[in-house]
Amino acid sequence: MKKLLVANRGEIAIRVMRTAKKMGIKTVAVFSEADRNSPHVKHADQAVCIGPAPSNESYLRGDKIIEVSKELNVDAIHPGYGFLSENADFAELCEANNILFIGPRSKAIRVMGSKLAAKETVKGYNIPMVPGTDEAITDIPEAKKIAKGIGFPILIKASAGGGGKGMRIVENEAEFESQMDRAISEAKNAFGDGSVFIEKYVASPRHIEIQIMADMHGHVIHLFERECSIQRRHQKVVEEAPSVALTPELREKMGQAAINVARSCDYIGAGTVEFLLDENLNFYFLEMNTRLQVEHPVSEWIAGVDLVELQIKVARGEKLDLKQEDLKINGHALELRVYAEDPMNDFLPSVGNLEVYTLPEGENIRVDNGFEQGMDIPIYYDPMLSKLITYGKTREEAIELMIKAIDNYHIKGVETTLPFGRFVFEHEAFRSGNFDTHFVKKHFSQSLLEDQEMLEAEIAAKIALKHFLMEQKLLKVPN
């Protein structure tokens, strides 16, 4: 492999290029017109514009990316995450043009891209599942009958879904039909596929995922777990490794389950198997992400590996030189996704210019970044600016370093998730490890509500005092 094209943008493109350069591989960046002056363009050995700003006219144009790859004699394509990373057709297009796709084969992507197909595939491996339907359903009366059999509350999920789209929690029978209609409609709009399935809603779950790596020679390992329970809109904001909830025995069981999921679809490369963990420490298979995850740096730090390097080596046909028994957890790592979002306004995107943008530095602080001071935040893409990662010998050490790093991360011009991160890392529920996927609703949203009520009470008190003083002045009898 002499030349690698990264079919992505921002921090993940730079992160992949950094490892490729370390391995002596030339890099090619692709960019939209909106990203012409982006750091990832400057970071590559070569760069080619592939279209206008909208992603469906640039970063999602698999045919254009293949065309550029052939023109520049590219040996391999790394898709990063998002965009074409889990597109089975694109993986096949790479194969058809004799270009290495750094990821699993198209069959594994296609199977694991459907939650129902994934459930069916792993059935023979005794993977624990949340009770629910085994096939897609759109017949609402029939679906209601199934839901009553499972017992409310239930969860309606898009079969082709992800990122919380096409997902609805239904508390009781009365609201079932309207929520079913919405889930089907949302799934059609987001994925072009309105098929949904129903499963029991796990009330207070933790979101635990296992990082796996598999080569072409039948070797599969796991690189321990990541705790991903701090989420807004079913999307992660804070991740850590390892999880405080897992015992060594449970870690071994979940790790083996993840390996079995990978084996069930003849998986190759880096992947993540996601599980729900209930309050009684029962775990259930959720889905498999057939790509590198946003939060992969925390796994790299505690396992002492470079996952992108392993991806490239596996794609070249090399055997994994790591054995499961050789891997040990070393220390603790945290990650905060720094989004251009306003946490005080329901995490809505914040568009503007980065008037000030300086990154924290120091030992055991890592920032995977895709922006520079003076840049505008494009409206066309995911609003993530960077990932702030800290490492410590203990969890407490990593938390204190993270708070210090947040304080030294200076951004002006847009709102970001940095204040939210500080709230999380200082909160007793997080520090004690006693939290689940409802952290934002239970603690952050409640805190905002209480702050608003205090502000309103303070304003009301000031108005009352002003009226009182005015009345006193009016009633005052002159000498």
Topology:
Layout: E1 3-6, H1 10-22, E2 26-32, H2 39-43, E3 46-51, H3 62-71, E4 76-78, H4 88-96, E5 100-101, H5 106-113, H6 115-122, H7 140-150, E6 154-158, E7 168-170, H8 176-191, E8 196-200, E9 206-214, E10 220-232, E11 235-241, H9 248-264, E12 269-277, E13 283-289, H10 296-303, H11 307-315, E14 332-339, E15 341-342, E16 348-349, E17 356-358, E18 365-369, E19 384-392, H12 395-407, E20 410-412, H13 418-426, H14 428-432, H15 439-475
Parallel strand pairs: 1-2, 1-4, 2-3, 4-5
Antiparallel strand pairs: 6-7, 6-8, 9-10, 9-12, 10-11, 11-14, 12-13, 14-19, 15-16, 17-20, 18-19
Helix pairs in contact: 4-5, 12-13
> Which stretches of 5+ consecutive residues score pLDDT under 50?
none
Strand content: 15-25%
Shape: globular
How far the N terminus sits from the C terminus, by CA atoms, comes to: 98 Å
Largest sheet: 8 strands, antiparallel
Helix content: 25-40%
Strands, count: 20
Number of helices: 15
The average pLDDT is: 93
Secondary-structure-derived class: alpha+beta
Q: Numbering strands along the chain, what is their spatial order in the largest sheet?
A: 13-12-9-10-11-14-19-18
- Rg calc: 24 Å
Give a nutshell description of this structure:
The chain has 479 residues and is of the alpha+beta class. It has helices at 10-22, 39-43, 62-71, 88-96, 106-113, 115-122, 140-150, 176-191, 248-264, 296-303, 307-315, 395-407, 418-426, 428-432, 439-475, and strands at 3-6, 26-32, 46-51, 76-78, 100-101, 154-158, 168-170, 196-200, 206-214, 220-232, 235-241, 269-277, 283-289, 332-339, 341-342, 348-349, 356-358, 365-369, 384-392, 410-412.
